[in-house]
Amino acid sequence: MSKQKLVQYGDPVLRKVTSRVIKFDKSLRKLIEDMFETMYANEGIGLAAPQIGVSKRVLVVDVDYASKRYVDEKTNKEEASYSPLVLINPVVIQKEGEMVSKEGCLSFPNVYFDVIRYKKIIVRYQDLLGKERKMLVEDNLLCRCIQHEIDHLDGKLFVDRPADADEVKKVLDENGFGGIDSVAPPILIA
Ligand code: CO
User: Fold this and answer.
1) Count of domains in the chain?
2) pLDDT tens per residue, range 66-87
3) How many angstroms does the Cα of residue 106 sit away from the middle of ligand 1?
4) Partners of 27 in beta bridges
5) Would 47 be classed as within a structural domain?
6) Domain range spanning residue 49?
7) Distance, CA 23 to ligand 1 centroid (Å)?
8) What would the DSSP string read from start to end of 57-73?
9) In angstroms, what is the span from residue 47 Cα to ligand 1's centroid?
């Protein structure tokens, strides 16, 4: 496993629609390991493959380890609680409602603002072995995080879904990112 360099906003790979994974082989497992290592090293709760420069339809999330800690009774040390999840070729097949709260992104250091998301989604995806699965997530951080990461796979970024467009312009400017790039991602036909 090795930690990879994070791609920053402005790199065209973040605006590309990724290609579907066909082969569930060793190189896919290596990619997933690298993605987890990079996500954990940067204290992220989710990471999409384009964020390490790989334009493939793969995302990883772990919404627990950064916030859920416990003290190990034997060592008396604080330990993280891990809930790693891998979604390959994910597609949102049902969505409803709306929720708004602050988001950040590993490709935009120090940038946080309110983002609009669906409140409830059903996602169809494949697991590490290529088996097709579905997941319902509703009204929580995982629901928000999966939508953020699936957007990455479609060349969309959280700056495209602001609750307040003026707030985003201001915070991007303050962090030296300039304006929102205007490359329109191609429409994904699921
Ligand atoms: Co992101």
Assistant:
1) 1
2) 778 888 899 999 888 889 999 9
3) 6
4) none
5) yes
6) 12-174
7) 25
8) SEEEE-SSTTT-EEE-T
9) 6
